Amino acid sequence: MSTSARFDFGPAAPDEIALFLAEAALAAGPAVMEVYAQDCGVRAKDDGSPVTLADQRSEAIVCENLARAVPQIPVVAEESTAEGKPVACGERFLLVDPLDGTKEFIARNGEFTINVALIEKGRPIAGAVYAPALARLWFGGEAAFVCEAAVGAGLPERRAWRPIRARPAPDALVCLASRSHADAATEAFLARLPVANRLSRGSSLKFCVIAEGAADVYPRFGQTMEWDTAAGDAVLRAAGGVVLDSAGAPLIYGKTGSGLRNGAFVAWGDRTAASRFAAQR
Description:
Layout: H1 14-27, H2 29-36, E1 43-44, E2 50-51, H3 53-69, E3 75-77, H4 78-82, E4 92-100, H5 102-107, E5 113-120, E6 123-131, E7 136-140, E8 144-148, E9 162-164, E10 173-178, H6 184-191, E11 195-201, H7 205-211, E12 217-220, E13 224-225, H8 226-238, E14 242-245, E15 261-262, E16 265-268, H9 273-280
């Protein structure tokens, strides 16, 4: 499978689509790491958030690969949307975050990712999250996997993939909090849970840690955009978890009325945990 050739999403199973998306994310790894090794070239976007040359190069590579392989599927990407490109969300579309965790990139802690997801009828049915500085790739459709993926080496052979599964919630939870976006609402939410340990991770890595069964819950009450969450959400769902909005329903995508902004959400590894811990309060 290669993003240099046409790919038919019609008959493809979600796991095949996830592999295709993984290859698109991997293709941008060398360009991102080239910038990472040099001056990041940081500037501020209109909303005040940072953007680097790596964001721009990564998006160009991913979107070029997607456009060549699946020209019939609309692509919504962070930087082109920020520059005013009209958002085209049909029943099926692709979401691209070319560098999730730009602040982590600038801080040079390695916790940034390249995210690509396919949305169908509001659901992320397949996604890939690539952390080039960590040389790790997560992808999921019907099932979820993780593997070591060196920059520039392409998709590893299947024998290198490790299936991952979110764990049943224990009595004492391991929670994930954003390193860059802590707030009072998060603290209040976690205060109502039996938390045994707290971890901090950047970018979409938080979804992947839960998908691997190494943590249980990740609340986010500040603003995020759909491209921030879609790929990690797809991996977590494929691993048996769920991302719930403030009404307790699975997070949906294609919210053009809100400008593709997400509201508050909580990611759980155990789909029953939200109701179980709510009943215990």
